[in-house]
Write a structure and sequence with these properties.
This protein is mainly α and 194 residues long. The protein has one domain. It is built from 9 helices and no strands. Helix 2 runs parallel beside helix 5, helix 2 crosses helix 8 and helix 6 packs across helix 8. The protein is globular.
Length: 194
């Protein structure tokens, strides 16, 4: 996959100063939820994320599985508080680049899923009755329920809506300049509560 040098380093992802702890928590939570959506749809795991980090020359930021796990535990919605650390700007940039790299890699699958979603929506059918979408929704729900705090759990309809919104977002992040779109979305998500 061809990646421009500014895209690979995230040089066009500007630093925003003055974010408070709640805003940073919202950014951490949203990044992790996007990764959960990618995991649910493309059946990727930590190995794929680490390979993307290597391809993007980000091994200094995300060194190994333990480092990745600790980084993902920065999500305040996660069950375990052990290993939790603060997410810095460089780590956020790295996760943005990795997410977009993987979204591009699985763009065809994402596009197929979004096209199916459009079709079932137009036909007023239930997305979970279509194999690809149903598998995605079930996997997303299972991952969310297994990893997130019980008091933060959403009901099935809310989880489905979140999963489908993240699916559509992934399509945008899989395009040229997707990393910039995601970065700007994160700044938007830093204000509202997820």
């Amino acid at each position: 996959m061809k990646i421009s040098s500014s895209e690979s380093k995230g040089q066009d992802l500007t630093i925003v100063s003055g974010l408070d702890a709640q805003q940073l928590d919202n950014i951490k939570a949203h990044l992790d939820l996007i990764l959960v959506a990618l995991e649910a749809l493309a059946k990727i795991g930590s190995e794929s994320i680490l390979q993307a980090a290597q391809a993007l020359d980000l091994e200094k930021v995300i060194v190994d599985r333990v480092g990745l796990w600790r980084l993902r535990q920065a999500n305040p919605l996660r069950k375990s508080s052990s290993g939790r650390k603060k997410l810095d700007v460089e780590e956020a940039r790295s996760l943005v680049l990795i997410i977009c790299y993987l979204a591009k890699e699985y763009q065809e699958l994402i596009r197929r899923a979004v096209t199916l979603l459009e079709q079932v929506t137009n036909q007023q059918k239930e997305p979970h009755k279509i194999a690809l979408l149903g598998d995605y929704l079930d996997t997303f729900s299972n991952l969310y329920e297994n990893r997130m705090e019980t008091e933060e759990l959403l009901n099935y309809d809310q989880l489905s809506q979140l999963a489908l919104k993240l699916l559509v977002d992934l399509l945008f992040y899989s395009t040229y300049n997707g990393h910039r779109r995601l970065w700007l979305a994160l700044l938007d998500y830093s204000n509202p509560v997820l």
